Amino acid sequence: MDFDLSAEQRKRYEDILAAVRERLGGRSPGSGPFTRDTWRSAARLGLAGLCIPADHGGGGLGALDTALCLEAFGRGCPDTGLVFAVSAHLLAGAVPIRDYAQAGRRGPMLSGLANGDLIAANAITEDDAGSDISRLAVTARRDGDGYVLNGDKSFASNAPDADIIVTYATTSPRAGFLGITAFAVPASTPGVVVSEPFAKMGLDGCPAGRVRFQECRVAQDRRLGHEGQGAAIFQHSMGWERACLFAAYLGLMEEQLERCVAHARDRRQFGRRIGDFQAVSHRIATMKQRLESSRLLLYRACWMLDRQEDHLEAAALSKVAVSESAVANSLDAIQLFGGSGYLTAAGIEQQLRDSVPAMIFSGTTEIQRELVARTMGL
Hints:
Elements: H1 7-24, H2 36-44, H3 63-76, H4 80-100, H5 103-115, E1 120-123, E2 139-143, E3 146-157, E4 164-170, E5 180-186, E6 192-194, E7 208-219, E8 223-224, H6 230-245, H7 247-266, E9 268-269, E10 272-273, H8 278-306, H9 312-337, H10 339-342, H11 348-355, H12 365-375
Parallel strand pairs: 1-4
Antiparallel strand pairs: 2-3, 3-7, 4-5, 5-8, 6-7, 9-10
Helix pairs in contact: 1-3, 3-6, 3-7, 4-5, 4-6, 6-8, 7-8, 7-9, 8-9, 9-11, 9-12
């Protein structure tokens, strides 16, 4: 069992970290949703196409290498919302297109997604379908050589600025999971109505909104996979998202921990560095423990995904560990920085607000624990 990264992996990580710090390190977490120029800057670093095949302009990377790059991205870019937006575009948008789009559509979409010309959004959540996606209210009825979509999606990251919306609709209401079909719908299609961006607690750099389909006609070649395969396609993309996306939070915690250590060395109270007090040093040691244990679980989940092993339990465990550690470490960081940590200028409180949603998206913490329980036979 080898726990070391290869020289190539280490170099790729360091190169991306340096490039992100140079080109995107000035992004303020409170600067609002990304602009097209900012998106293209990330795409020029290869971040929008990490696991897209090389013959379509992507990096052709597997899950672990994709995660390592996202970790570097999350460490070097203070705008975690932008990191999340690019990660969601890649893992919940490009992955299902990469693996299930029909031949005539696949190449052009992947090339545009990789080079930054196209932005992908994932629209599956509905007002009454969050954790339970077996009965989606959005429908897709057959109409000649295509489908007509109707209904609302309630929370779609990137949707206000997306060019392609990967969405899921019910084509056979009586079939449950087997009655859901996936589509890659151009946002410019007549009948697609996207709301203004939501005001959110965190991840400000990633715009999210509602998507309404009103008698939206979609050609059959915009369907992903076969009719009724949508639930399996969604679970496939979630496997990649749960395994890889949360590496961005490893990067956030790494940068956060560095700041906490530096602060504990420099800040003096009662004539001593605050790092000399066990109440401070032990808190930082616990932060390090959370980070490293989360990292091992995430790398293992990605390693299993690359080996095409059953990674459901591993991805669920890593998602819970990373998301809960990110929140706990952010709370500790605020406590360590005291009053300055509570002020927006330091950027510490922003890390907490950006971390809280990690316990909700891609399946809540409770759902992940239920998945783990089921794999144990409970």
